[in-house]
Amino acid sequence: MMSDSTLRGFAACGCGRSDHQLNTYDYLSDVPGNNEASDLVEVQFKNTRKGYYRNDNGLDLVKGDIVAVEANPGHDIGTVTLTGSLVPLQMKKACLKPGTEIRRVYRKARPVDIEKWHEAQGREVGTMIQSRQIAKELQLDMKIGDVEYQGDCNKAIFYYIADARVDFRKLIKVLADTFHVRIEMKQIGARQEAGRIGGIGPCGRELCCATWMKVFTSVNTGAARFQDISPNPQKLAGQCAKLKCCLNYELATYMEASKKMPERNVHLETADATYYFFKGDILGGLVTYSTDRRLAANLETITAERAREIIVMNRKGEKPLALSEETPEVPQRPLDLAEQDELTRFDKNKKRKKRKKTLRGGGQQMVDEE
């Protein structure tokens, strides 16, 4: 069994998987004095919404604590996901705007606060369905993707998607009269909606936008072409119906490796033929050439270095005897045991014996017998 000191080295109190998305691993949670390094804490609400608050009251907060924080109006309920010296780094990574107000943590949530919070969560699905019907009746070209109630049920945030500008002033008035709460409309994109809903990607893992990604960069089809990925829209699109964010993950590596590859529009001249670019393996550093510009004929695969050498030779007016530097080896024919052995190989070798046979008249004759 491991000792207590060994267990403390894993910082187990900071790596528990919470029931929220965008989980954060607090690897400094067991370092003495970590919580005193900063009075800022990271608090997560429904799905991917996070906020940063100041622990002015000096509460002993750890990851997983449910707290009541300042809101406008009233208070909100969330879960502490990060404390100590890592919080300022997360705030820098979140690219908060200068002058952003840092609100306070009121207290640890009481049983009454948690009961009210669960009541607010129970109203969200019904409110979303009813609000979609209201938007349809008002003939608004928008989709309400999610609804989030504040912890004290005084405010509701409606997340919507729209391709064009939407005048929802009348919608806000109808929603306020229907649900009797303060209404806040927040426009999100298709990727943000997928992150809030969550799901499993074709790789078998949770969606990146639902687990760790908060900043979304633009993705274009050029990233797929650069990596020689088949331009199939069904395979390139994610669950948000946009191009997959993971197309950008290895793009820099491919761009660096492609600098060592020969140009595709340059053909190679040898003593007996002209070879045209057919396909290339960027990461492997291999290039395949064909003797036909459009078809796969007499394909030969060489390294990118060898291809650049031949290009330099062609520019000097020289032509190598063949694309490959090494003479091709004649492949050995595979051995066939049934062909090289006879069917009678299991028969016993029989020795031929000679005996004398007496003939009529007294003569003798040597006769072979097995």
Question: Care to give the gist of this entry?
Answer:
With 370 residues, the protein is an alpha+beta fold. It contains twelve helices and 14 strands. It folds into four domains: 105 residues, no CATH class; 75 residues, GMP Synthetase, Chain A, domain 3 (2-Layer Sandwich); 42 residues, no CATH class; 48 residues, no CATH class.
Work out the helicity level.
25-40%
Q: Helix and strand succession?
A: HEEEEHEHHEEHEHHHHHEEEEHHEE
- How many angstroms does the end-to-end distance come to? 78 Å
Main sheet properties: 5 strands, mixed, barrel
Tally of extended strands? 14
Number of helices: 12
Describe the overall structure.
There is one protein chain. This protein has 370 residues and is an alpha+beta fold. The chain folds into 4 domains: 4-108, no CATH class; 119-193, GMP Synthetase, Chain A, domain 3; 217-258, no CATH class; 268-315, no CATH class. Helix content is 26%, strand content 22%. It has helices at residues 4-8, 86-93, 111-122, 124-137, 169-179, 190-197, 208-211, 221-226, 233-236, 251-258, 304-315, 337-340, and strands at 40-44, 50-54, 66-70, 75-83, 103-108, 143-149, 155-161, 182-187, 268-269, 274-281, 286-290, 300-303, 353-358, 364-369. The strands form 4 sheets. It has a 5-stranded mixed beta barrel. A 4-stranded antiparallel β-sheet has the order 9-10-11-12, with helices on one face. A hairpin with a 5-residue loop joins β6 and β7. α4 (124-137) packs across α5 (169-179).
